[in-house]
Design brief:
The structure is a single chain. The protein is an alpha/beta fold and 231 residues long. The chain has a single domain, classed as Aldolase class I (TIM Barrel), CATH 3.20.20. An 8-stranded parallel β-barrel has the order 1-2-3-4-5-6-7-8, surrounded by 6 helices. Helix 1 links the parallel strand 1 and strand 2. Helix 4 runs parallel beside helix 5 and helix 8 packs parallel to helix 9. The longest helix is centred in the C-terminal third of the chain and has 16 residues. The protein is globular and about 70 Å long. The structure holds erythose-4-phosphate (E4P). Erythose-4-phosphate binds next to helix 7.
Length: 231
């Protein structure tokens, strides 16, 4: 895990992996830059149908928070399932979609100390309402706004301003990140967390100038004809 590398009162953006694929998650852990994982029913549908084992394994692999989404619909059942999910592991965060009928459930769960991530946030007012309930994460979706030709990044900007205005402790978790520009803007705006699909994180390592630079240094070193640096 990364060392604390920030001045007092400051924080570096956390990086979560947006996947339920255990092998991919395992492969990223040694990099030391992954702080958590977010899953959702669509991501789980691509994995082993033994959902409980998949989720338990992810909670073991990752030290940080792992968001697991409820799939029940009725508020009472959502509450019961949230409790069940929260008992799966210490690092579980229960993900609940934004909905008026779930606000009493979320309110009750936060009072009981259950960590909540409210998902499918598409407006500032939605975010304010769940911040008032003391949820741990608020997940504004960028890419799905872009899908309908609206610049989704503005929502992240608005939420950060609201967080600065009121000083609430809920973390802004930039979600539905589809490209490197979404990620760069989330960093510049100051989102607390970005959840990133592993395929996108891979792209960061494929910068042509970095790759060319590595090849050039290697070619020049070989010109010296030495076996080791200090021979
Ligand atoms: C994460 O919490 C979200 O479920 C995820 O980022 C959604 O991304 P998508 O809009 O690309 O499906």
């Amino acid at each position: 895990m990364e060392k604390e590398n920030v001045k007092k009162g400051k924080k570096l953006m956390k990086i979560f992996l947006d996947t339920a694929n255990r092998e991919l998650i395992k492969s990223w852990i040694p990099t030391g830059v992954i702080n958590g994982v977010t899953t959702n029913p669509s991501l789980l549908s691509k994995e082993d149908p033994d959902v409980k084992s998949v989720l338990k394994d992810i909670c073991d692999i990752v030290k940080g928070d792992v968001s697991i989404e409820v799939v029940e619909k009725e508020p009472e059942k959502v509450y019961k399932q949230a409790i069940q999910i929260s008992k799966l592991a210490k690092n579980v965060v229960v993900k609940i979609p934004f909905s008026r009928e779930y606000l009493p459930v979320i309110s009750q769960l936060t009072k009981e100390g259950v960590k909540i991530n409210v998902t499918l946030i598409f407006s500032l007012v939605q975010a304010l309402l769940v911040a008032k309930l003391g949820v741990k994460y608020i997940s504004p979706f960028i890419g799905r706004w872009d899908d309908i030709d609206v610049d989704g990044i503005n929502l992240i900007q608005d939420l950060v301003i609201m967080q600065e205005n009121y000083g609430f402790e809920s973390k802004i978790l930039a979600a539905s990140i589809r490209n490197v520009i979404h990620l760069q803007k989330s960093i510049l705006i100051g989102a607390d967390v970005a959840t990133i699909p592993p395929t996108l994180l891979d792209k960061v390592f494929n910068h042509p100038l970095t790759l060319q630079g590595i090849d050039k240094f290697d070619a020049d070193w070989k010109k010296l004809g030495k076996k080791n640096l200090f021979d």
